[in-house]
Amino acid sequence: MSRIPVTLVTGFLGSGKTTLIAHLLTQPGFAGTLVVVNEFGEVGIDHDLLEASSDDTILLANGCLCCTIRGNLVDTLLDVQAQVADGRLRAFDRVVVETSGVADPAPLLGFLLGEAAVMERYRLDAVITTVDAVAGAETLAHQPEAATQARVADRLLLTKTDLAEPAAIAALSARLRALNPTAPILPIIQGQIAAGELLGLDSPALQGFSACGPGCTDPSHDHDHDHDHDHAHHTDRFHATVLHTDAPLPKHAIEAIDAAIRGWAGLQLLRLKAILPVEGGDVAILQAALMVVHPPEYQRATHPIAGRLVLITDNVDAAPLLEALARHGLRTA
């Protein structure tokens, strides 16, 4: 039986993982793909790709499937195979795992490579790491997870290069090359890259990678006790807040929300993503990471949505921002 290739897409918050995956799923090379996403404070894959949903499995408009991680990656991969065998899930040809932006990918790789039941059915094809060309230098300097994400990559995708200065791109590329001398560094804009650049790699970067993770030398290491440690560690360090609004907001409220975010943005703002209904039938998409706040993007709503804003911070008090957002119709419960 041919083993199913797995591509791990990692990268720090706001570096463009979801945009990359959304673009890849439109290409024939990624047809029939199961996308597994981490649920740490993330708003899911671009909503214009979604066709229908049931529980934690989503049928995308191009025929791909998407599910959130239940328990841990090993359980998820085995569970979806069981669902295919039972006829509850359509068969898939490839798996893309999108990690949380604050995840250290080494434990996930250890789980994947160290479980015989998983490796009988799957093979690791590639680790793809997205790096924000604007905020990447600050992220590497302050977030150790980002450095690990770069070190284990088979491909380093430098995103948002249209927004960064050439000197900054050169300096960041040199830093990445020091962390990972073998992975090609590929600049991309809006997630656009040919699928062939990321397929069929058989993860040469992970040859010799310890199946039980950094510092573990026992190949019989039992993973069961450790599956949840990564989430607990990041729950202590990072904080995710979700705000909601059921009613459409006037455009001036969207502009005020954008201004409040800009006034608070900085190193403490790891990620902000919002999808908010606007009076008149549009939705506003707001995104920010560190000091970079993107202008609101307006799209025509294809179906009614309950607005939500996800804020991820690095162990700081976000009360001033939350109070400002509450004045414009966003609430925590």
Describe this structure in words.
The protein has 333 residues and is of the alpha/beta class. The protein has 2 domains: 4-202, Rossmann fold (3-Layer(aba) Sandwich), CATH 3.40.50; 238-332, 2-Layer Sandwich (Hypothetical Protein Yjia, Chain: A,domain 2). The protein has 10 helices and 15 strands. The chain has helices at residues 17-24, 73-85, 105-114, 116-119, 136-142, 144-151, 166-179, 229-237, 251-264, 319-326, and strands spanning 4-11, 33-37, 50-54, 57-60, 65-68, 94-98, 122-132, 155-159, 185-187, 239-245, 269-278, 282-289, 292-293, 297-300, 307-313. The strands form 2 sheets. The protein has a 9-stranded mixed beta sheet, sandwiched between helices. Helix 7 (166-179) links the parallel strand 8 and strand 9.
Structural features:
single chain; six-stranded antiparallel beta sheet; alpha/beta; Rossmann fold; nine-stranded mixed beta sheet; Hypothetical Protein Yjia, Chain: A,domain 2; 15 strands; 10 helices; 333 residues
Write the layout of secondary structure elements.
Layout: E1 4-11, H1 17-24, E2 33-37, E3 50-54, E4 57-60, E5 65-68, H2 73-85, E6 94-98, H3 105-114, H4 116-119, E7 122-132, H5 136-142, H6 144-151, E8 155-159, H7 166-179, E9 185-187, H8 229-237, E10 239-245, H9 251-264, E11 269-278, E12 282-289, E13 292-293, E14 297-300, E15 307-313, H10 319-326
Parallel strand pairs: 1-6, 1-7, 2-5, 2-6, 7-8, 8-9
Antiparallel strand pairs: 3-4, 4-5, 10-15, 11-12, 11-15, 12-13, 12-14
Helix pairs in contact: 5-6, 9-10
